[in-house]
């Protein structure tokens, strides 16, 4: 007995899921493009606006790029779910809000994972009570540090790129 026979999907579910998934070329190509855009935003912030970081610019560029890629891959199905047969202003708002928030969250998450990896060898044994506290406070510290020092690398270039992309997508939806 296969899994689909044991748990049939409700009628219309396949169409709904198919509508959420964007065309593969747009999904994957857009992920690469958005990754490059977020990496470029970081590089512009450092070199054009003089926001010096440290000797870790390459690693941080990769974090912003990978976070941008993850943000696109997660946000695009959400945007498609919200904007199905929607007015252009709704499409604009969805692209601005969802892609913006998900991208920032993804970059912050990748930053927190790297931060946690750096401090892991000083942490208590895996799954101990102290280890759990260390995970919570290390992650919270990383997210705070990203909020204070990392968000500035998405401004103004990343925000401008998000705005232009959102306007193009809203115009395309008409």
List the topology elements.
Blueprint: H1 3-6, H2 13-20, H3 24-47, H4 57-83, H5 88-119, H6 129-150, H7 157-172
What is the gist of this entry?
With 174 residues, the chain is an all-alpha fold. The chain is built from seven helices and no strands.
Q: What do you see in this structure?
A:
The protein is an all-alpha fold and 174 residues long. The protein contains 7 helices and no strands. The chain has helices spanning 3-6, 13-20, 24-47, 57-83, 88-119, 129-150, 157-172. Helix 3 (24-47) packs across helix 4 (57-83), helix 4 runs antiparallel to helix 5 and helix 5 crosses helix 6. The longest helix is centred in the middle third of the chain and has 32 residues, at 88-119. The protein is globular and about 55 Å long. The protein starts with a helix and ends with a helix. The mean pLDDT is 89.
Task: Kindly state the percentage of residues in helix.
Answer: over 70%
Rg over C-alpha atoms, rounded to the nearest angstrom = 19 Å
Figure out the total of helices.
Answer: 7
Mean pLDDT: 89
How many strands?
Answer: 0
H and E order: HHHHHHH
Which stretches are poorly predicted, pLDDT < 50 over at least 5 residues? none
What is the CA-CA span between the terminal residues?
46 Å
Structural class: mainly alpha
Beta strand %: under 5%
Largest sheet: none
What shape does the CA trace take?
A: globular
């Amino acid at each position: 007995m296969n899994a689909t026979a044991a748990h049939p999907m409700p009628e219309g579910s396949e169409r709904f899921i198919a509508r959420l998934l964007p065309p593969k070329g747009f999904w994957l190509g857009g992920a690469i493009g958005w990754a490059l855009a977020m990496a470029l935003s970081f590089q512009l912030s450092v070199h054009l606006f003089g926001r010096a970081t440290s000797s870790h610019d390459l690693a941080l560029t990769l974090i912003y790029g990978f976070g941008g890629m993850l943000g696109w891959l997660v946000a695009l199905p959400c945007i498609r779910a919200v904007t199905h047969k929607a007015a252009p202003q709704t499409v604009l708002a969805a692209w601005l809000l969802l892609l913006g928030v998900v991208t920032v969250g993804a970059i912050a998450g990748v930053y927190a994972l790297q931060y946690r990896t750096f401090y892991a060898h000083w942490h208590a044994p895996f799954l101990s009570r102290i280890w759990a506290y260390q995970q919570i406070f290390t992650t919270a510290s990383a997210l705070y540090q990203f909020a204070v020092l990392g968000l500035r690398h998405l401004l103004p270039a990343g925000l401008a790129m998000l705005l232009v992309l959102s306007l193009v997508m809203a115009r395309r939806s008409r």
